[in-house]
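Limitations
The structure tokens in this dataset are predictions for the assembled complex, not deposited experimental models. Users should treat interface geometry with appropriate caution, especially where small molecules or nucleic acid strands are included. An illustrative entry is reproduced here so readers can see what is and is not provided.
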Amino acid sequence: MTRIAVVTGGARGLGLAIARLLADRGHALVLVDRDDAVRDTAEQLRTASAVVADLTADEDVRRVRDFVRETHGSVDVLVNNAGITRDARLATMAEADFTAVVEVNLLAAMRLTFALEAELRDGSSVVNMSSRAALGNFGQANYVASKSGLIGFTRGLALRWSPRVRVNAVAPGLIDSPMSRAMPPRVLDGLVARIPAGRIGEPEDVAKAVAFLASDDASYITGQVLTVCGGRSIAP
Amino acid sequence: MRPVLIRPADPRSLDEVGDGLRAAFVTVRDAVAEGRPVVILVRAGDLLGHHSVYGAAYANGLAGIARAAGFEGARAGWQVNVVALPDEDAGDEEAIITAVRDLGLTGQVLTLGAGLAGKVIP
Ligand SMILES: NC(=O)c1ccc[n+]([C@@H]2O[C@H](COP(=O)([O-])OP(=O)(O)OC[C@H]3O[C@@H](n4cnc5c(N)ncnc54)[C@H](O)[C@@H]3O)[C@@H](O)[C@H]2O)c1
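Predicted assembly:
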């Protein structure tokens, strides 16, 4: 039977890499993004449909749930990947920028997951996109709080929903993305030099970790964080 | 200087998680601007999700704020830490708060009691 995967933030970046890999592995996809470019992405993948939705809005979340219910009836994999950054030093970070990041990265993921509770099939898997930055980062109090909170959500939900649904998190480190490409080359080289693996991560590195946790190969894994950072989280 | 204390209430909704994190962020931002240490008290079990999903998101979000402040302000001498209290009686809270301040730590999550022994380090 075809497995159904919902991937948020699926229009581009890591979400797109995850969608591609899950499609290659035979999943039918529902890609959710506030950017309507998600429609083109879904068309390219063929086994995907798209829902343009802002996941911070209750009515949009209900629309996603209704679409999933009417189109597929149930869900095997939910990947909460949509995320934003609004970086600033702590001293100058505006309250609104703190709230905006927590709203998308943490609360929207929680809202959608709760909304899809009835659709998540027995034996299904939720994968939350956290970040290595949950351990601490400069100028990202909002992001760190949101991604650390997402790990808490992962643990709490794993305990509540076991053994019916597994819930895990992936925590990527520095990944080749528009954000990393926007950095001055010297800064980027300095960061890469501190990664034991000796290279920047590729979106596919993250996608493989997500696909593993989403699959039955990970059927004995729940409430865990898989850090995909080339060893940066243990390096001096 | 006496630390600013954040003692979160148990959140019962998504809104309360968001409001609680925002309030804690403002408290931490303003405290470090004034050079005051901050101690955030959470329940140890919340860090691993033992009590509620909302409590887990909130407690770990607070730990994130402390870690971010620790990362950013260690050189400047900011002191923002989380103390995870055991679910049973934690003992003399005032003494704990003073001890954390006097140790000069920052960005740490200190887990008291043995409730999380043998489990993931939060
Ligand atoms: N790229 C990295 O290096 C890196 C590292 C660690 C963690 N992450 C996390 O991985 C995830 C994807 O990152 P990325 O680099 O691909 O980012 P990206 O900005 O390229 O893509 C994020 C997607 O999420 C969508 N989105 C944002 N807010 C939304 C909302 N309210 N509703 C619906 N969709 C929304 C955006 O439109 C976008 O398509 C994020 O959660 C990010 O925090 C990324």
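Some entries come with short summary sentences. For this one: Chain A is about 45% helix and 20% strand.
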